[in-house]
Queue: 2 jobs
Job 1
Amino acid sequence: MEPLIDNVECWVLRAPISEAVSNAFGTMTHRPAVFLRICASDGAWGWGEVFSNFPQVGAEHRARLVASIFAPLLTGVAAIDPVFVCTLLEHRTRQVAIQCGEPGPFAQITGAVDQALSDMAARRAGVALWRHLGGNNRIRVYASGIGPGRVAEVAAAKRAAGYRAFKLKVGFDAVRDVANLAAMREALGDEATIMCDANQAWTPADAAARIVALAPYHPHWIEEPIGADCEHADWAELAARSPVLLAAGENLRGLAAFTGAIDAGYLAFVQPDVGKWGGISGGLAVARHAAAHGVAYCPHWFAGGVGLAASMHALAASGSADGYAEVDANPNPLREEVFEFTVDDGWITLSDAPGLGVEPDLVRLARFIDS
């Protein structure tokens, strides 16, 4: 008899931070996380993480959605195939998501369910998830979320920690953006790979000029220079005018949205987020389509250690030769105390531990659990 899901649990965690984390649209004054665990009737279990960065008050709401809507729907469902289960969830929650105007949070929870069931499947097989999915355990990473303050100092510290690629937050004042990128380039040298993330800050009318101003410092990509919901024609026109390659994807939802953007030809790097849509299975579907069109798969992640591990295993399974995994450069105990790894000359070697290789210590993390 196939194992069935018999328990779905969720924990909201909040970690204080000494220095706020800012981007073009907002500031994080603490670090939230929503960890989800699914257990099956055969004793297997798996972990996932739900996106909950913004709004900062949204973590509890997502956990309540899990308890009130998703857990009852999942209980008794076969705990074997993540794609089947998540497709079933999407079908069963579609009208409710529309009714309450929350397709985003519903997709985020479903993405965490996919992570947990993927973790469970590999644990059940007794192998690491990257191996279970037929991947390689060596992946490139970059240090993300640098700026707008102390950019040269933070970048130098991350280089000393083994990173060779770095992402700067832009989308602030034009003068400050250029000065920060210039400072990072001077501190890191010509050999460093530097990306820029504008977090949708610019309009289609002004984005090209803002990118041209940054171009002399040779950014590897410009991420989300304009709104994720701008028309394909706006993105294509910007790509034609931009001296820097474009990246996006963390704010797309649904395979059709990703394939549409890739097919339109304006992205060089695509960045699905395992905690926002699709989990690992959806991300790999995007990666396969991207590979067929010469687009690099670079999964987005900027939260806790469970989702980071899932993001890294997805990249490891994708076979994307030009891909990078994102690692937040800012202190976050919900990452650091959950998933430990070493960066060696810009690369990480994932362990052979079963599943995601992470097991959150809820006793150790109890001081962060929001009860």
Job 2
Amino acid sequence: MEDACNFRCVYCLPEGFRKTIEAPPLSVPEIARLLRAFAELGLWKVRLTGGEPTLRQDIVDIARTAAETPGVRRVALSTNGYRLSALAPDLAAAGVRAVNVSVDSLDEGRFEELTGRRLLREVLSGIDRCLELGLSTKINAVLLSGVNDGELGAFLALAKDRPLGVRFIELMRNGAAGPIFEKRHLSGQVVVEALLSRGWREKPRLEGDGPAQRFSHPDYAGEAGLIAPYAKDFCAACNRLRVTSRGGLRLCLFAEEDFSLRDLLQDDAQKEALKARVRTLLGRKEPSHYLPEGRFGTAKNFALMGG
């Protein structure tokens, strides 16, 4: 719902956010019409992402709009966490039930090197606040060989006594991450082997689960997870669609193009036409991405489409 971001993560926006799109982001009424149409097509889980969605001053209104949409059963938020301590109570009251927070290192200096911001303590405080409020809370850590791959134990320790999910994400190539991908890419299989060697076991999939693998351990209150897009059959479990902050339907994170829906979001009378367009476009969804072949579509950075 927002393509701007105030962090400068080395694999996404190493030079910082630069505005390239003049059109304003979708308004709350446009978002409401979009969600109603998708819910009538069977969507029941909504994730608000970015960029950094909490840069929008109306993020609580957006969350409430999503939660109040008939048919929507779960609203989640993906964030860099810098505003979570302050926003979490209002987001929970608005209907957000799950929060994913990007934390690529638990070392304060390394975190600053990776994000361009010395905000690790504030981010971790926000995670604590979400847990206190009973929100389903996960940490997302992008794997970077030679940078944070030695922190596996430290990340898992966070889930020892708390119902916290710790997910490791294999670095994906995009337009901004070519050089760092070549230098820092680490196969997710390394994490799987490390987890299994420590007594973790893969959990069965639940309704609504995406392509992430989930692991549990009898001695841990939380769980571990892995998103490994280069693994065989990764896309077989994909049930995701993305709509950009300007109303472009993106059938895959690594798609070659977006399909604008915005012209059909201007009044309620266009709902059936919107649903028809979405149905037609779904027929163009590829069975898999083409990352192993070195193709990453128009994904210049993940801020534009919600990585």
